[in-house]
Amino acid sequence: MGALCSGVRPGDDLLAAATKTVHDAEGQPLPELNDDFSVILFWANGGPSHLDLFDMKPEAPAEYRGPFRPVQTNINGMEICELMPRLSRMADKFTLLRSLHHERAEHSGGTNRFLTGYSSVAKNLPRSEYPDMGSVLAKHAEYSETPLPFYVANTPSYGAGAAYLGASCEAYMPSPNLETASGANQYEPVPIYQTGDGIGDLSISQGGVVDLSRRRQVLQQLDLLSRDIDSTKMMSSMDVFQQRAAAMLSSTKAKTAFDLTQEKQTTLERYGDTHWGKSLLTCRRLVEAGVRFVQCQATFRLRPETGRTSTWDDHSVNAHIFKSYEEKVPVLDQAVSALIEDLYSRGLDRRVLFIFCGEFGRTPLIRNQDASGRPGRDHWPQAMSVFLSGGGIPTGQVIGATDKRAERPVERIMNSNCLLASVYKKFGVDPHRAFLNNAGRPVPILTEGEPISELF
Questions:
Q1: pLDDT-based confidence at residue 31 (cuts at 50, 70, 90)
Q2: Residue 4, in any domain of the structure
Q3: pLDDT in tens, 200-225
Q4: How far apart are CA 454 and CA 34, in angstroms?
Q5: Is residue 5 part of a domain?
Q6: How many independent structural domains does the chain possess?
Q7: How far apart are CA 132 and CA 127, in angstroms?
Q8: How does pLDDT run across 341-357, given as a tens digit for each residue?
Q9: N or C: which end of the chain has fewer CB within 10 A?
Q10: CA proximity to 43, closest of 137, 107, 98
Q11: CA separation (Å) from 227 to 176, 234, 453?
Q12: What is the mean pLDDT of the chain?
């Protein structure tokens, strides 16, 4: 799903394409990206609760604070949820942003807003109206030559996408599920790793012919899904995509990057035999092999008695939020701490930035709308927490603060675009450059938001 922005040449017919230069809306060539920086975005689609993870308020009234208690980390004054003991012992290797905010409270509208820097016209858009961060970066590397795609994801995100940059800047997805771009929140978690059951297109037949029929169906479905809001020109790039996909999949380096059997058993055990453990280990293997931007949804299958959702959309009607966190946060703690250990022990911490966040936070006030009376929290873009590690940033710090009920930022208040501007700066991208949209109008990468000085 999605085209390969690596510009891989499967034959002489793509020689010309591989030597093209990318230009902005004014026809000026774009500078080459910083070739020593990559991002892993572990996307908590649905919106994780900042109040129950990284911005706890133990002195707030009971109807706000929830049942979990904060635990002191190895950084004086920094506390996180007690369900993350491993991470609490390595706070010197991560930074928390507690004061980002934006104005869109719908899932796809919030995703479009957070990942593109723009507010969409539509509220419930399957795919974004503006190019998301990964696609913008992929555009800059559209014709670079590498056996791996620039941008890899596990599945489409509801409200994200390449928009008018076109299919060549969509993420490569080994086994996507179109439900993930439909607003559904009950789908099974989608693997980015090889499952061993033959699903996906990570194999080559004995004769060297790649079976891309399933991927062609995905592209056709996605084109139909997007046509009612805007043409993404997906089908016009499909043939080029298929050639590039065939070249990528025939690369030993590419197949090896997705293959977890290459890892030691002790490493597999450290990450955990879970969807998140295998996902983050694969993300590490991908960036180590040369992928520059990996986006993976942090979805989790709860026990039926806990809730019906697999995203972080823990309304009372979807799940018992606190039982949900008791199930998934310890798994998050194990997988993320293992990844951070790997980034530092393998010398990747200077050039690979790990980000964990979702499109917004959750309401500080606990709600009990479900007939069972179970607790939940609703959408809350007014405040959120973002977890960062690696990337050469100063770590062991908390940037910003919210009020006593975590309702709004009160210190170092920042538009969520500031995170995008920071990542673009790390890659050497000028966010004031513009690209032409489908109407031929130049649209800047960002119109507001400055890099966060504390991250440099």
A1: confident
A2: no
A3: 444 433 333 334 445 555 555 555 55
A4: 20
A5: no
A6: 1
A7: 10
A8: 999 999 999 999 999 99
A9: C
A10: 107
A11: 19, 10, 40
A12: 87
Residue (of 192, 175, 156) closest to 40 by Cα position: 192
Are 38 and 389 a contacting pair, CB within 8 Å? Answer: no
450 contacts 95 by C-beta, under 8 angstroms? no
Q: Which position has the token pair 């980002």? A: 100
Residue 319 has which token pair?
Answer: 């799940």
Amino acid at 58: P
- Residue 302: domain span: 12-455
Task: Indicate the pairing of strand 409-411 with strand 414-415.
Answer: unpaired
| Cα 303 from Cα 137, distance rounded (Å) | 38
Q: DSSP letter at 172?
A: B
Output the furthest CA–CA distance in the chain (Å, rounded): 67
| Helices and strands per DSSP (H, E), number in the chain | 12, 17
Look up the CATH number of the domain holding residue 418: 3.40.720
Span 109-136, average pLDDT: 96
Helix, coil or strand: residue 296? strand
Amino acid in the structure at residue 338:
A
Report CA torsion sign: 409, 399, 87, 420.
positive
Whether 414 maps to a domain, the answer reads yes
Instruction: Kindly tell me if the per-residue pLDDT of 296 is higher than 60.
Output: yes
Mean per-residue pLDDT for 432-451?
Answer: 96
In terms of residues, how long is the chain? 456
pTM, 2 dp: 0.88
Give the C-alpha separation, 277 to 296, whole Å.
12
Record the tokens describing residue 111, joined without a space.
């995703």
